[in-house]
């Protein structure tokens, strides 16, 4: 069983989605309204007790495997267990059952503000709901899903889910995972791997440690760059080698076909700007000389320039910018170094 939790600002939008005609029906509720408008008005009356709380909406989906089935009474029991376990016993809620996808699932729209004006705690909420999923799997004799912290693929963010729902298209993260999995079905050396990825529109950049050895990898598709670890544990540099990617670790003074080399970043997996420092630089060299040295571009293709040189240069510039944005994000994340990460979305397996 998988639980997906999103905290948001608007009740009406969540209710409109859950109660679409021929898609969802109310399974259980402790409210009087029947339509999204009526229910949103009721939610709003209690929300007024805490006007300064920005995210009062808790929107949850609970799903099981396509080959499993629960009857309505069992789904109601699941919904009530979730509400109790997450501290929503005194909160307004609407549980709806959806039959529009292959995997059976229900949705919960919950007001985090209770009828007594107290706000349900969201501390460790994703961890708490994940432990409940494991418990319900045993109680209902459902398939055990691998915990998210052990999953080889990273789950989708709220933005990626909303994009996929809105456009019907997979996110860049999903596409990269699929392309890499398909390409690496059989063992490949690094040159062949990166060339096959490039044929599918994926650019690869290797992270070069200060020792000169490759220590990380990232990918760019549709001008969006992601570290291997952003795709999941199965896509880091070490994991790819365990999956059959072969590469002889030697110091690199030039690029690998289809790849560029980036300077090492604190995260160990992030990719910096193209280029590298010359080992012959001395500490007293001028900043101008350092800039010139760093300007060397490692790993550029050695093929002759085509007539479409400007277009290719522009495309490469955009790709470089995507990798540079990724590097800046990683650097900022390292500097903040705080455990208080965004808690606006989450996926528990």
Brief rundown of the structure:
The protein is α+β, with helices and mostly antiparallel strands. The protein has helices spanning 11-18, 36-47, 72-85, 125-139, 158-167, 172-183, 190-199, 228-231, 237-242, 287-294, 309-336, and strands at residues 2-8, 24-29, 57-63, 91-98, 105-114, 188-189, 203-208, 214-221, 224-227, 245-246, 259-264, 271-274, 345-348. It is built from eleven helices and 13 strands.
Structure description:
It is a single chain. It is elongated, with a radius of gyration of 25 Å. By secondary structure, the chain is α+β, with helices and mostly antiparallel strands. A hairpin with a 2-residue loop joins β8 and β9. It folds into two domains: 2-150, BirA Bifunctional Protein, domain 2 (2-Layer Sandwich); 163-301 and 309-336, no CATH class. It starts with a strand and ends with a strand. The strands form three sheets. A six-stranded antiparallel beta sheet has the order 2-4-5-3-1-13, sandwiched between helices. A five-stranded mixed beta sheet has the order 9-8-7-11-12, sandwiched between helices. It has a two-stranded parallel sheet with strand order 6-10. Helices cover 36% and strands 21% of the residues. The protein has eleven helices and 13 strands. Mean pLDDT is 78; it is low at 264-307.
